[in-house]
Design brief:
This protein has one domain. About 55% of the residues lie in helices and about 0% in strands. The chain is built from 9 helices and 2 strands; from the N terminus they run H-H-H-H-H-H-H-H-E-E-H. It is mainly alpha-helical and about 200 residues long.
Length: about 200
């Protein structure tokens, strides 16, 4: 009988740190904060597809290299190319496999991509809670996004290569967002669910 699997502590740490660095612009600090003509944070808040593509590139790197730490400078360079393609055309030679955004519901990659799509594109027009959209989440800072990814990574479970509680994991993230955006709401989250590894 197959065992239920969860992300390792190290995997959870990489996921939530990636989300934090993505939102605060430190994947490649100099390029994203000093060399872009466009304001990085405003662009990210108003372009959920860039957030989603960056998440897909991250997970594609994870699956191919399983590195101790993601290649954050490369990921930051890719984002700079997407924002200002003419200026940064020669910065990174992006390979086709890095851009795979096709969501396969099964497995680690599909679950991660589905979550990234849910938090960005799906909630760019539909609120998480009343009057709170993707753009609000990004504007309110990297810590909020980091916490959402941490909760998801702590809760999600896999069996035989497929996520078995994906929808439930979203409800736990939603519980945090109800607290953050709802005045006086007491979240029904256990300590381990929103622990930052």
């Amino acid at each position: 009988m197959s065992k239920i699997q969860k992300f390792t502590t190290h995997q959870r740490s990489k996921i939530r740190h990636f989300a934090y660095y993505l939102v605060n612009g430190t994947l490649n600090f100099d390029i994203l904060n000093n060399q872009l003509t466009t304001d990085y944070h405003t662009f990210l808040a108003t372009n959920p597809q860039v957030f989603f593509r960056a998440c897909c590139a991250y997970i594609n790197h994870e699956l191919r290299f399983n590195a101790d730490w993601p290649d954050v400078k490369r990921l930051g360079g890719m984002i700079a190319q997407w924002i200002e393609p003419e200026k940064f055309a020669e910065l990174v030679n992006i390979e086709e496999w890095e851009l795979d955004v096709n969501i396969d519901q099964a497995g680690f990659k599909g679950a991660f991509q589905s979550f990234a799509h849910w938090i960005s594109i799906e909630h760019s027009r539909n609120p998480f809670v009343e009057n709170a959209y993707y753009s609000d989440l990004i504007t309110d800072g990297a810590t909020n996004v980091e916490t959402c990814f941490a909760i998801w990574a702590n809760v999600i479970e896999f069996k035989d290569g497929s996520a078995i509680n994906y929808e439930y994991s979203l409800t736990r993230v939603q519980e945090y967002l109800k607290m953050y955006y709802g005045q006086g709401y007491e979240p029904q989250l256990e300590d381990w669910e929103w622990e930052l590894h």
